[in-house]
Structure to design on (223 residues):
């Protein structure tokens, strides 16, 4: 897991200092940023793995927690002055892990934050895997299309190469400039043909590998 990023929102310098200092005792120390609620705006939490909202007045706290509800890639932990405020935060904002600021709050905060960061990392891994799967499907579709179009492309290239050969066999009928252009067309067509042949060879190797793998699987199942 790469170094996570944590944003602490608090107007209480003692709370912010205690929360940031508590991370120093941990094995994995995140990159911590401190900000007051006066500097908060709706996009302040973007890019952070975890946002910790310290004790604030109910209006500001509610506004900040609401703005953090639309991003599953960011975990949110709220620390309130009392259990009643924590229960209210949980009821209004189901995405928030809320605790009250009581004895041992910093240890509980780190415990919840660590679990929340693990969940965020799991979500990010799942999203990356989904994107990779989509990209693999896109590439597979492109590969199938190329396989389907290969005979037509081969025929077109054969025609181009053949006609270019015929023209080059009669140098007196075309100008020197046209002859050079035909040579270029001929050379590029040969290069494209080579690419298609390599692709065909790769496709054949992949099919052979799939058959071999299937045969080994069948053998294991038979045994």
């Amino acid at each position: 897991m790469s170094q996570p990023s944590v944003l602490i929102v608090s107007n209480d310098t003692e709370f912010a200092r205690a929360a940031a200092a508590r991370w120093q005792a941990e094995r994995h120390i995140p990159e911590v940023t401190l900000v007051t609620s006066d500097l908060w705006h709706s996009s302040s939490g973007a890019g952070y793995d975890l946002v910790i909202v310290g004790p604030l007045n109910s209006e500001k706290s509610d506004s900040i927690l609401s703005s953090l509800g639309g991003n599953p890639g960011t975990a949110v932990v709220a620390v309130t002055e009392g259990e009643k405020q924590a229960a209210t935060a949980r009821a209004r904002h189901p995405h928030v892990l809320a605790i009250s600021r009581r004895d041992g709050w910093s240890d509980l905060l780190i415990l919840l934050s660590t679990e929340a960061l693990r969940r965020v990392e799991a979500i990010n891994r799942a999203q990356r895997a989904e994107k990779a799967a989509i990209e693999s499907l896109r590439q597979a579709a492109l590969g199938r299309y190329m396989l389907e179009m290969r005979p037509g492309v081969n025929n077109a290239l054969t025609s181009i190469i053949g006609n270019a050969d015929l023209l080059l066999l009669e140098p007196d009928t075309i100008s020197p400039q046209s002859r050079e252009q035909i040579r270029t067309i001929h050379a590029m067509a040969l290069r494209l043909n080579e690419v298609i042949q390599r692709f065909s060879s790769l496709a054949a190797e992949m099919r052979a590998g799939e058959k071999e793998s299937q045969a080994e699987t069948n053998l294991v199942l038979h045994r």
About this structure: Residues 95 and 109 are 16 Å apart (CA to CA). The radius of gyration is 32 Å. The chain has a mean pLDDT of 82.
